Amino acid sequence: MGRKIDTAELPGGLRLTFNRDGIFRGYGDLLIDEANNALIMEVRAEDEEKATNIAGVLDRHLVRFGERDELVVEFRRV
């Protein structure tokens, strides 16, 4: 995914910016929560539809990458 979208390092994680064809769609921050053995995903977008789309893209990629380890992805809106 990193070859198709811009990534930037953040303290404790990465920011993935969704900017296809010069149109900003939003971004997702992936942060490691070592205390709870979790990966926290925060999605920001202009509207709910774009946020849901970005969350879906991240969900599909995370599940595929973690398939061997039986990764479970659970979303919570905050």
TrEMBL record:
Pfam families per record: DUF2218
InterPro entries hit by this protein: UCP028291
Protein origin, superkingdom: Bacteria
Protein name: DUF2218 domain-containing protein
Organism field: Rothia aeria F0184
